[in-house]
Structure prediction request, 247 residues.
Amino acid sequence: MKIKTFNDPQQLGDAAGQDAAALIRQAIQQNGGAHIILATGASQFATLSQLIKSEDIDWSKVVMFHLDEYIGLPVTHNASFRKYLQERFLAKVPPLRAAYLVNGETDPVAECARLGELISKHPIDVALVGIGENGHLAFNDPPADFEVKEPYIIVELDEPCRRQQMGEGWFPTLDDVPRTAISMSIQQIMKSKHIICSVPDSRKALAVKNTIEQEVSNLYPASILQNHPDCTCYLDRMSAAMLSQSN
Prediction:
């Protein structure tokens, strides 16, 4: 795991977005196309903003998946991750070869199977991810299942995760936050050739410390990234504040 620290979230996002763009261009050049995973949430604002400004990406050769979606939440809801990606990414780049969004309004078991079959045909070149305040990776809250092989799974959201969603302003009260979601599994995320992990904000400082400095454990789900052959964590001064000097 490589670690890059920047002064503020904007610098973090600029660097992460530029590096993601370079890896996407590289995949297109080498393979004739690129398969990517995009995350959502406040941590990705600057990274996605930079990515969509990047030049010389032939988006018609890009296939996109995303990490997770609440079960039962309408796509019109402000917190819908499909809505997020449609408005913040898909509407701002030329049409992609394909964009496979998680539909939380249909049968979740069938949706997991549909997406699993699709992603098995598209080995991921670049995954953009974040880390939750509770250390989750996608919606794999602690203790995360490191062993499940299915690409997409149904998960229960723990209270710290749900409180984060409320605290970021996506829902007015804790009771409004859904209790279940469809999430990409840990094993599927780890299959990505390159992982770019954008983690700004002091709210994430403890999770960052646990991710980087604890032993790999499902109690700290994102700590599994230590085992990935090419993962870079992009931090700002606030999210890196609790790291030891050696980092």
Observations:
- Residues 19 and 114 are 30 Å apart (CA to CA).
- The mean pLDDT is 96.
